[in-house]
Amino acid sequence: MLAERINRLLPQTQCTKCGFEGCAPYARAIAEGSAPINRCPPGGDTGIAALAQLLNKPILPLDQSCGPHVPLQVAVIDEQFCIGCTLCIQACPVDAILGASKVMHTIIAADCTGCDLCVAPCPVDCIDMVNVEPTRAWTRDDANQARARYERRITRLNKTPASLRSTDEPPLQTASIVNTTEDKRTAAQAALARARARRNASTP
């Protein structure tokens, strides 16, 4: 199947920068002719060239509207400011973040794909993307392992009713937000304000 052959050439970071929900949907769109081959920043020029060869298409420059190709990065949580909201855990497509509600989170660097999907949801801005040292390329083995982790996560979430999910897999809201009492909402807002203040105070 053409879409699967295309998907095997994609980096499996599941970053969504291409405008699709993951690598497989993007691969299907390419196979159907509804998406060009140059919308994958993690794959960069090498990935575009591989797709062009497979599909017998001309090599195109990376579509910069999707973002630039950057060196391999991993997410790092400044743990002193983490409030345990679990939003980053929910956003991570490959289960590369450990933690639970109201407990400090940490990144499993070896499993992080550098997708940066965890950065935007963090309400206290305590997640940064840093270059992997020493610098190295994202390999096909990396992609295969990331795809396996992503597919395991999707399978697990699809099999687990929302009411039975553990505290690190709530619906796309924090535990404090879904509570309905005014006192709990006020406490959550105060915690966020304190964490932001500490973060700002530590920034030169």
Major sheet, described briefly? Answer: 2 strands, antiparallel
CATH architecture of the largest domain: 2-Layer Sandwich
* Coarse shape: globular
> Order of strands side by side in the largest beta sheet?
1-4
Helix count equals: 7
Average pLDDT metric? 86
CATH fold topology of the largest domain: Alpha-Beta Plaits
* Helix amount: 25-40%
Number of strands: 4
- The ordered H/E elements are HHHEHEEEHHH
Structural class: mainly alpha
Low-confidence stretches: 166-185
Could you walk me through the main structural features you see in this protein, from its secondary elements to its overall organization?
The strands form 2 sheets. The protein has a two-stranded antiparallel ribbon with strand order 1-4. A two-stranded antiparallel ribbon has the order 2-3. A hairpin with a 7-residue loop joins strand 2 (97-98) and strand 3. The protein contains 7 helices and 4 strands. Helices cover 39% and strands 7% of the residues. The chain is mainly alpha-helical. It has 2 domains: 2-66, 3-methyladenine DNA Glycosylase II, Chain A, domain 3; 70-204, Alpha-Beta Plaits. The protein has helices at 2-9, 23-32, 44-55, 87-91, 140-159, 175-178, 182-202, and strands at 73-77, 97-98, 106-107, 127-131. Helix 1 (2-9) crosses helix 2 (23-32). The longest helix has 21 residues, at 182-202. Mean pLDDT is 86; it is low at 166-185.
